[in-house]
Amino acid sequence: MLAKKLVTAQKRGETRALCLGLGMVACSMMMYFFIGVTIVPFYTNSVWTTETVCKVLKANIKDKVFCPNSEGSEAEEIFPYPCLQVWVNLTASGQEVMLYQTEDTLERNPKCSYIPEKLENSKEVKARIETIASNFKKYQTFPCYYDPGGTQNNVILSRLYPSKGLLFAFLWPTLMFTGGCLIIVLVKISQYVSVLSAWQ
């Protein structure tokens, strides 16, 4: 009677462990699909792939402009902010080009190098942009990314999804997938050993 209860408990434990392993594999596959649909296209479509050194030529704050809302967003997201324009000398080609914070900055507003977050206090926005402009004037040389193909005559300060960020995004689903497969393999080995012991 006791042996029967132990076998039943063992089978229940194996079933739960197997469900856990299959669940982990299924979740990791969903995460792979999500990353492949959202992050990978941004990474592959970015033409600013080569890192070089940029030297600031001028950093000016123009009159206020309106932040254009993206397609499908609410009109409340439109807000005025001072337009910071940073021009740099691209050491790779010696050209004078405009600097943008990321690929998204150029897409949202090609007139400005930086788009601040929406804040209630316009003085805070102005102070932040002035601080960024003074930092560019203070630190004249810094790494930036440009398009080696020449389709874009501008540079960006940082990529939205660099290579390290993409690898880090794939790290967690890979660990989950490996852990799920390991659990399934261990359960199958345990079942095989149990059957082998029963035959003996």
UniProtKB/TrEMBL annotation:
InterPro entries: K_chnl_Ca-activ_BK_bsu. Pfam families: CaKB (PF03185). GO terms for cellular component: voltage-gated potassium channel complex. The chain crosses the membrane at residues 20-43, 166-187. It is found in: Membrane. One of its GO terms (biological process) is detection of calcium ion. The keyword Disulfide bond does not apply. It comes from the Eukaryota. Keywords: Glycoprotein, Ion channel, Ion transport, Membrane, Transmembrane, Transmembrane helix, Transport. Its main location: membrane. It is a multi-pass membrane protein. Signal peptide: none annotated. One of its GO terms (molecular function) is calcium-activated potassium channel activity. Belongs to the KCNMB (TC 8.A.14.1) family. KCNMB1 subfamily. This is KCMB2 protein. The lineage of its organism: Eukaryota, Metazoa, Chordata, Craniata, Vertebrata.
